[in-house]
Amino acid sequence: MRRLSAVLLWASLLSGCEGNEGPRYMRPPPFTQTFPDAGVVPDAGPVSWACQRAAVVHGAPISLLADLQLAMSRATSSEARTQAIDRFVAEVEAKGGSPLVSDASAGQQRVAFFVRGAAGRDTFVAGEFNAWSPSATPLTQVRDTDLFLAEVVIPRTGPQPYKWVKGGSYVEDPGARHVEWDRLNRNSVGQFNSLVYPGAQDATKGRLTAWYDVRATVLGDARDVFVYTPARYDGPECPVLPVLYVQDGNESLTRESFVDAADAYYAARPEDAAVLVFVALPSQDVRLAQYTFPPARAPGWPTPRGDEYLAFVKDDLMPKVEAGFRVKTGAGDTGISGASLGGLISVYAGFRYPEEFGFVGTQSGTMFWPHDGEVDRDDGNAMVVRAGQEPVVPVRFYVDHGSPESGCTRDGEEGADDCQSNLQFVAALRARGYSVAHVNEVRGGHDWAFWKKRLPKMLCAFRNTDPRVCGL
After folding, report:
1. Which of 283, 220, 214 is nearest to 251 (CA)?
2. Confidence band (pLDDT; 50, 70, 90) for 243?
3. Do 211 and 224 meet the contact criterion of CB atoms below 8 Å apart?
4. What's the CA gap between 398 and 5, in Å, rounded?
């Protein structure tokens, strides 16, 4: 596609700028979701057009660029130009995120990409529109500011995925709100493509909204969060849906796509649709600490910080999700789930905060985690002890795992997939009268492929109180 000349684009803008002051970099405000998806007007009932993808799934309007040009042409100092850019970035975030796009009715579909700060220097944008060229579309610095920008014409022939290219590496645009997995399994934390026209995604499937660097108050760190809204969410009835929080939010989307499994299940049973919130980790290095809890602590292992992690989910993330999306509130419509250690911390959350989470899903959960800090002792597994001895809480459970073909004897045997401790956990729950949906997949391994295959069973159990509805 034709790249518009940066010289022509900024000629009139720069002609009105005077002064030789050097750039004063001001860190842009953090990304936040500043408005909920629309759909309900008080005392007026649902407004079908207000929650459709065409209304809420788009980038910021390119008219904001003209506003910036006018403000910059009137600025007479570096400080004034910086303030104009601050306002521009805030407006972009408030009105759909980057990139900026022309109205669908415009004759020429202009798209503006930008980066703020030193990260923009020697940066390019690559996507389907330029055959993913790492050098065809550079971002150009706007005079003495810290804004780098490129404007191109891109037809509305589909969602049009793209990435930044920096030092030869393809990276995500942190200012983009709408994303999709790039379909490259890196056998670790994966990556996403940002979308130019997210409203052009397949309307029969769900979509992902990215929140980058969501701050955790108590932990003092930040992580990415990806909110999956099923196809029904964008339907004419503007539904308010239950919500399920999922641990290992990046890997569960990019190792074996949980989105694909959810799309297939919700296409078959749209009445079970739910919003899925995939909560990533700041890095894999903190996984053991943030997914475990005291007093279970072996010598040389990190101090458990599961309580602080759950404080983030409960106090930082849940209010943000409830403000930004049409989700039901209350424990009966809120669940938490995870695989392996993610399953362990999810079960712990259910026992600790039953007033927040009325459903817990665990896939091959680390149920052998001890209750007294001594690992590899036959002393009772923490969650088994808790299920059997503490007062019953109003929580429904879904538990799945694999087992050897010959039958489960011990967690550590080949192909056991922690089956022994999971079976003990299920037995303890049922002995106390809990509602439990249980899946034991013979020859099922401790791997994302197996968890994805069993995910529809968990999604069904989340929405249906009778496990028999789900064939369990």
Report:
1. 283
2. very high
3. yes
4. 57
What is the rounded distance in angstroms from the CA atom of residue 39 to the CA atom of residue 176?
A: 23
Can you list the positions of beta strands (E) in 176-254? Answer: 178-181, 192-195, 207-216, 221-229, 243-246
- Token pair 């989340």 is found at 462
Q: Buried b / exposed e across 5-31, counting CB within 10 Å, b at 16+?
A: ebeebbeebeeebeeeeebeeeebeeb
- At 372, give phi and psi (nearest 5°): -125, 10
DSSP label at 361? E
> Could you report the per-residue pLDDT of 187-197, keeping only the tens digit for each?
889 999 999 99
Q: What is the DSSP letter of 441?
A: E
Report whether 362 contacts 402 (CB < 8 A). Answer: no
The pLDDT assigned to 426 comes to 97
Using DSSP bridges, classify how beta strands 221-229 and 207-216 pair: parallel, antiparallel or unpaired: antiparallel
Beta bridge partners of 126: 163
Confidence of residue 156 (pLDDT cuts 50, 70, 90): very high
Cis before residue 23, ω within 30 degrees of 0?
no
Q: Please give the domain boundaries of the chain with CATH numbers for all domains.
A: 6-173 (2.60.40.10), 202-470 (3.40.50.1820)
> What's residue 95's pLDDT?
92
- CA nearest neighbour of 436 among 361, 374, 372: 361
Helix, strand or coil, per DSSP, at residue 107: coil
Sorting pLDDT into bands at 50, 70 and 90, what band is 294? confident
Kindly give the interhelix angle for 258-268 and 448-463, rounded to the nearest 10 degrees.
Answer: 40
Neighbours of 425 (CB within 10 A): 29
Residue 88: burial class (beta carbons within 10 Å; 0-12, 13-18, 19+) = buried
More confident residue, 239 or 11: 239
Phi-psi region of 433 (alpha: psi -120 to 50; beta: other; left: phi over 0): left
Given the DSSP bridges, would you call strands 436-442 and 396-403 parallel, antiparallel or unpaired? parallel
CA gap 411, 366 in Å, rounded: 10
- How confident is the model over 406-427, as pLDDT tens digits? 889 888 888 999 999 999 999 9
Name the percent of the chain lying above pLDDT 90: 78
Residue 11: pLDDT band with limits 50, 70, 90: very low
Q: Which amino acid would we find at residue 85?
A: I
- Calpha distance 276→229 (Å, rounded): 7
Q: Could you tell me if 163 and 126 are in contact, meaning their C-beta atoms sit under 8 angstroms apart?
A: yes
pLDDT at 370: 82
